[in-house]
């Protein structure tokens, strides 16, 4: 028997792998499954944000609803002491290692939640309308570069607004099919209007 | 749609994003074993259940996920004000002021 610690690395399987959908003239709505990425849930005090920014390699914003995105890394402030960090899968280990190194100076919890949720990109002039079929937020009041946790019909989602007519949502894997089907059924409205 | 102001998000958000979490300002006893049965019963089960102004806990579960306190009129179902957890019970005057 070996005393060595064995680490099990699980493969990420995406229930929406490669899914794509378009509806209406233009098209009004384009939906696509976002690629896999590394995801971290970060809990810490605001005073540690400078340190955390160093470890993540990208600005981590202090205000709830703020998102900072550059190149391939995105940091979302979801609560007074809660952030979601998105990064390429290839950087998963280096980010974890850099955070671990500073655990003594800046107390925090960093949990790898890469496989917890999947992403969906939604764009087009009809994007907000389709989201509002199940989401009670006033999406015109959500600024470009904003984000929030909210609800879509009965599924909790994290909603980001990277562009005026571009949204990205994160949903727990087990609700992914439900959310995809909900949005694409709402999107079919555009087909009937064009006919 | 009933809107509730979250004191952490500083936004009015739809009720479906929130969950109710019972009466507010109920202090957990420091030394429960010193309690009589009657005192323990009161702590666990007896609530004020007023007609009118009620202090209660809510959680922005599908938002910032934070617990906070609210003052709600149980007759009209109107939220008079909300405030962060840990803050003292607002005075009558503060509640009146928040209504405007
Ligand atoms: Zn909130």
Bound molecules: zinc ion
Overall number of domains of chain B: 1
Largest sheet of chain A: 6 strands, antiparallel
Structural class of chain B: alpha+beta
List the secondary-structure elements of chain B in sequence, H or E: EEEHEEEH
Class by alpha and beta content of chain A: alpha+beta
Per CATH, the superfamily of the largest domain in chain A is Probable tRNA modification gtpase trme, domain 1
CATH homologous superfamily identity of chain B = Folate-binding superfamily
Helix count of chain A equals 5
Point out poorly predicted stretches of chain A: none
Provide the residue-averaged pLDDT of chain A.
93
By oligomeric state, this entry counts as heterodimer
Overall body shape of chain A? globular
Strand content of chain A: 25-35%
SSE topology string of chain A: EEEHEEEHEEHEEEHH
Main CATH class of chain B? Alpha Beta
Give me the CATH architecture of the largest domain in chain A, please: 2-Layer Sandwich
What does this structure look like?
The complex is a heterodimer of chains A (195) and B (100). With 195 residues, chain A is of the alpha+beta class. Chain A folds into 2 domains: 15-36 and 115-195, Probable tRNA modification gtpase trme, domain 1 (Gyrase A, domain 2); 37-113, Heterotetrameric sarcosine oxidase (Alpha-Beta Plaits, 2-Layer Sandwich). Helix content of chain A is 23%, strand content 35%. Chain A has 5 helices and 11 strands, in the order E-E-E-H-E-E-E-H-E-E-H-E-E-E-H-H. Chain A has helices spanning 49-56, 92-101, 127-131, 173-187, 189-194, and strands at 20-23, 29-33, 38-44, 67-70, 73-79, 82-87, 108-112, 117-123, 146-152, 155-163, 166-172. In chain A, the strands form 2 sheets. Chain A has a 6-stranded antiparallel β-sheet. Chain A has a 5-stranded antiparallel β-sheet with strand order 4-5-6-3-7, covered by helices on one side. In chain A, strand 10 (155-163) and strand 11 (166-172) form a beta hairpin. Chain A is globular and about 60 Å long. Chain B is α+β, with helices and mostly antiparallel strands and 100 residues long. Chain B has a single domain (3-27, 37-99), classed as Folate-binding fold (2-Layer Sandwich), CATH 3.30.2270.10. Chain B has 2 helices and 6 strands; from the N terminus they run βββαβββα. The mean pLDDT of chain B is 95. Chains A and B meet through strand 9 of A and strand 2 of B. Residues 6, 8-9, 60, 63-64, 66 of chain B line the site of zinc ion.
